[in-house]
Design brief:
This protein has about 220 residues and is α/β, with parallel strands linked by helices. The protein is built from ten helices and seven strands. It folds into two domains: about 35 residues, no CATH class; about 170 residues, Rossmann fold (3-Layer(aba) Sandwich), CATH 3.40.50.
Amino acid sequence: MGRLSTPDLEHMYSDILKGLSVHFDSLLITDILETARRFPRLQLGYALNRNQMTSKTWLVDSLYQTSQGRLGRVCVLGGWYGVLGALLLHDHRFDIERIESVDIDPSCEEVALSLNRSHVDDGRFVFRFADMHEIDYVPADYDLIVNTSCEHLGDLPAWYAKVPEGTLLVMQSNNYFGIEGHVNCVNSLAEFKAQVPLAEELFAGELALKKYTRYMVIGRR
């Protein structure tokens, strides 16, 4: 048989994802398929690649172990296309009132809302265009703040100082030096922990991935 044409390939991929959505009873896969159709961006593939999904799955499982699923009002900083928000909202282990996905790039909004279509109409997922350094976190009264973009922050301590004491935090960084925008990579978990000294540490670990290691801490500010 000859090679499939581009339309045939797209039809095949669509059939595969539709079949998986039925097998896993997952609206997330359906939302991903529709989003890929509407926004055929290379960056969307990056947001859903193996390293990204492995890191986010590690975060979700570790967060459940430390929180027992009671999250309430969640803020995801550097939320990009809203993948982490989708993983959390589709995970029935969690009790989530609302997730606010924040990104400084306004072009992320339409993709994030599409990827989280299942939870936009009921108000459980919202996108916010903002700079995390300029948010007033006190009146926002988040139960949980997630920042997986610590390697992108030139002044991580300045952002950290804005977070109210006692707030539950999940933070990730890495040692992936040499990448554009990675202005604050660290060489070890100990170095990362020194940048964000928690009052109460609930979890600290590292995950070896292809080309780099990701570091994560969970605890209270």
